[in-house]
Amino acid sequence: MSEGTHFQALTRSIVFQQLSGKAAATILSRVSALFPDSVPTAEGVMRITDEQFRSAGLSRQKIGYLRDLAEKVASGALPLEEVESMPNDDLIAHLVQVKGIGRWTAQMFLMFRLGRLDVLPELDLGIQNAIRKAYRKRKRPTPKEVARIGAKWGPHSTVASWYLWRSLENGDGQLGVK
User: Fold this and answer.
1) Which of 63, 67, 8, 72 is nearest to 39 (CA)?
2) Same domain, 44 and 106
3) What integer pLDDT is reported at residue 21 of this predicted model?
4) Tell me, what's the pLDDT at 127?
5) How far is the C-alpha of 114 from the C-alpha of 119, rounded, in Å?
6) Taking CA 7 as the corner, what is the angle to CA 3 and CA 13, rounded to the nearest 5 degrees?
7) What is the CATH number for 22?
8) Which domain holds residue 90?
9) Is the same domain home to 58 and 141?
10) Given 113, 131, 166, which residue is the final one in a domain?
């Protein structure tokens, strides 16, 4: 599990979407600096102006995503204090109600933030490519096929996913399918 709050982890997920790691890290650092002690909170997001977020490098769309996350947390619609005890499917259902958080992001939160051991990210292209390679399939499997193949991996689907991702490394720590 990571350090920081669940809200920080979700903020990071939103900021990092569709950006290179270096650019996203720079923007996240600037965004975090807008908050007391550099710790993003739902209440803080509501106090910070769009102009401040824009000057930190956030797009209008991501500002909207952060505001939606903050509103849902502040209203109790997304009970972050209860995520540890929520079943995976229930938590995914709560998280995907936030604009900018889809099923894949919710699954990554379960796996890497909460350390859940039975998560199969069927939408992940790396998982799909690794299954194609491991099972010698001509085409990349669909998410439905990934779910069918991975059904027997429970209750350790996360562990199987880690091995699948590692199987794609080219010996240099870089992902890629030959």
Assistant:
1) 8
2) yes
3) 86
4) 96
5) 11
6) 85
7) 1.10.340.30
8) 6-113
9) no
10) 113
Number of independent structural domains in the chain: 2
Q: Indicate whether 17 and 105 sit together in one domain.
A: yes
| Nearest of 34, 99, 29, 111 to residue 69 by alpha carbon | 99
Per-residue pLDDT of the chain (178 residues; tens, 9 = 90+): 567 899 999 999 999 988 888 999 999 999 999 999 999 999 999 999 999 999 999 999 999 999 999 999 999 999 999 999 999 999 999 999 999 999 999 999 999 999 999 999 999 999 999 999 999 999 999 999 999 999 999 999 999 999 999 999 865 555 554 4
| pTM, 2 dp | 0.87
From 113, 140, 157, the end of a domain falls on 113
Do 80 and 124 have their domain in common? no
Residue 12 lies in a domain: yes
Confidence at residue 178, expressed as pLDDT on a 0 to 100 scale? 45
Burial of 28 (0-12, 13-18, 19+ CB in 10 A): buried
Both tokens assigned to 17: 């979407």
Q: Is 124 among the residues known to form the active site? A: yes
The answer on 95 and 52 residing in a single domain is yes
- pLDDT, residue 175, reads 56
The CB-side HSE value for 69 (13 A sphere, CA atoms) comes to: 28
Identify the active-site residue in 37, 89, 90, 124: 124
Verify that 76 and 50 share a domain, yes or no. Answer: yes
Place of tokens 């796996």: 111
